[in-house]
Amino acid sequence: MDYTFDKDILDGLTAPKKHLSSKYFYDDAGSRIFQEIMHMQSYYLTDSEFEILSLQAKQIVDALEFNVPFNIIEFGAGDGFKTFKLLEYLEENNIAFHYIPIDISKEAIDMLTEKLKERLPNVSIKPKIGDYFKMLKELKQDTTPSLLLFLGSNIGNYSYDEATELLQLFNNNMKPKDKLLIGIDLKKNPITIHNAYFDKDGITKRFNLNLLLRINRELEADFKIDDFDFYCHYNPTNGEVKSYIVSLKKQQVYLKKLDKMISFSQNELIWTELSKKYNLIDIEDLATKTGYSVATNFLDCKHYFTDSLWVK
Ligand code: AVI
């Protein structure tokens, strides 16, 4: 039994302001819907970061100043599509490295490994499945200099307190010469951000409602998906996109596994996700607060996104 999942869902649905964590979006179906999101025209984040890693791989690698074989440790590697460009550059230029992708999803890691072996057969790949921190501690024993990758604006899904805690934890487990390349979505025209998250094809809605299907399956619940909708809102003042599931009517949902009835009033919200946007000053502040300094921001040509290189 996944006790944490059960407890988090129950705590979230019985709180005065209901909430569910977006980290639970990514079951197999959710991961597939996220792939669809990444291919949406309006979800500019993927293209922007792909452009950075494709066109500025040399600049990024030069800025690392590693003269010996090094590790590239990627947290939440997913399908590794963007990282591929960086790895390709290294391979083409005979720069020695080991690629260590870490993800909690075995399916994601297996797919990534298979694709990589096909497209870059000479790359040394040591995939790891599991919890970031356990892996980080293990890797600290290794004396090879490491570049940590935390791409895709994953940091945006953490609250300020959670983000600082996570970044400090990375920092505590980094050796003095290690570096962190962190993908961060930048504040921009609010309409562009709104359209990325409130897509007219309803893919992001499906992504959110899939969590209710997951709860139905794993907690034997009886959410009727058609009685719920999706809403999201970007606040340009604080850079926060907040996503919600909306109960379309007064209703009750039974979680059989936990023997718990949950009541919803009409239009009641379940907050599901934060996707925070930063500007370059916010990024400096976050880096300083967590014990880093920003070496370089690698921006795409539209200045929508940065892969920000941080040193200890
Ligand atoms: C994974 N994460 C960075 C995505 C984001 O942009 O916050 C998840 C997502 N949610 C809705 N669309 C994409």
How does this structure look, described?
- The protein is an alpha/beta fold and 312 residues long.
- The protein folds into two domains: 3-42 and 199-276; 44-188 and 278-311, Vaccinia Virus protein VP39 (Rossmann fold), CATH 3.40.50.150.
- 40% of the residues lie in helices and 25% in strands.
- It is built from eleven helices and 13 strands.
- Strands 1, 2, 3, 4, 5, 6, 12 and 13 form an eight-stranded mixed β-sheet that branches. A three-stranded antiparallel β-sheet has the order 7-8-11.
- The chain starts with a helix and ends with a strand.
- The mean pLDDT is 94.
- Bound molecules: N,N-dimethyl-L-histidine (AVI).
- N,N-dimethyl-L-histidine binds at residues 37, 45, 152-154, 156-157, 197, 204, 207, 273, 275.
CATH architecture of the largest domain: 3-Layer(aba) Sandwich
The number of helical segments is: 11
Q: How many strands appear in the DSSP assignment?
A: 13
Rg on CA atoms, Å? 20 Å
Rounded mean pLDDT is 94
